[in-house]
Amino acid sequence: MRRAAHQLHDAEPLVFEDPLAVRILGKEHFEEVKRTPDGAKRPFSAALRAFMVVRARLAEDVLAAGVREQGVRQYLVLGAGLDTFACRNPYAKVRVFEVDHPATQKWKEEMLKAAGIVVPASARFVAVDFEKDSLRAKLKAAGFDDGVPTVTAWLGVVPYLTMEGFRATMRLLARFREGSEVVFDYSQPREALPPVEQLMHDSLSARVAMAGEPFQLFFTPEQLAQELEWLGMRVVEDLDGAAMTARYLAGRKDGLLLRGKAGRICVAAAMGAKAGEMRD
Ligand SMILES: C[S@@+](CC[C@H](N)C(=O)[O-])C[C@H]1O[C@@H](n2cnc3c(N)ncnc32)[C@H](O)[C@@H]1O
Fold first, then answer.
1. Which atom of ligand 1 is found nearest the CA of 77?
2. What separation in Å is there between the alpha carbon of 161 and the centre of ligand 1?
3. Any idea what DSSP says for residue 23?
4. In this structure, are residues 148 and 278 in contact, taking their beta carbons and an 8 Å threshold?
5. For 194-210, what is each residue's pLDDT tens digit?
6. For the whole model, what pTM was predicted?
7. Which end of the chain is more exposed for a tag (fewer CB within 10 A), N or C?
């Protein structure tokens, strides 16, 4: 809904252009998004929207660079939610694997059908519970090729996982073919935030917990860098609000601004394993 609100309410040039973001929502949710007030009236809502569109844009920018420069031929979208890339993939040679919790994926397929959006043959939907299933086995069964450089988008998911779930997935990504990268966002722990942001953190945490998916995993940038190194990934960049603003939001006058230091986005590169050496 926030990606859709961006298409409807924010000024050109948009940070993230997604012609399907509104369509996939259907009539009922569209009416709700139409009512979303502007950034100046709801600054925290706009800040959350800014973070979400920046992370979506960054993932697709990393994919574009990977296709151009690293021979990337697969895009793996983990915890895809209502991400629409699979249905507007502009790269004839890139296959898209959309992984999500079985319940979310079923709901999305119903939304796509109701909206009349066709899923192209280049896309595969793979139902996986990161906490229970072997992602590796499910991907293999769906035709995922570990010998092909792959960009993975893992957006809006890491804070909902256990440390074990995070590590199991990251270990797998670390063994993808050299030239593979992952883009994911993460949140800093409450105690690393200034007092006013601790209140924002509490309010958002309470909302997602009420929706049945509580936040449970947090990192400081230092903890994350250590963890990734241990798991066999190299941090390419770890963007804070200032870096995201400089890259994507500088000079905007429509109230689409990031606030606070809680949310960060990390791009990490697989150290690489020889094709076929993927292990759990
Ligand atoms: C906040 S949404 C983010 C969706 C999308 N990536 C985006 O950026 O809009 C979180 C997604 O993580 C998925 N998710 C959360 N826990 C999961 C788990 N244990 N296994 C698989 N998917 C999970 C949910 O199904 C949902 O699609």
1. 6
2. 9
3. G
4. no
5. 998 999 899 989 999 99
6. 0.94
7. C
Is 275 a residue whose pLDDT tops 70?
no
Ligand 1 pocket check: which of 101, 108, 125, 208 to mutate, most ligand atoms within 8 Å of Cβ? 101
Cβ distance 43 to 122 under 8 Å? no
Has residue 109 got a pLDDT over 50? yes
Query: Residue 213 has what DSSP assignment?
Result: -
Sheet of strand 181-187: strand arrangement: 123-127, 95-100, 74-78, 150-154, 181-187, 263-270, 233-239
Of 175, 114, 126, the residue nearest 146 (C-alpha): 175
Q: What is the pLDDT of residue 123?
A: 98
Index of the ligand 1 atom closest to the CA of residue 105: 25
Average predicted confidence (pLDDT) for the chain: 93
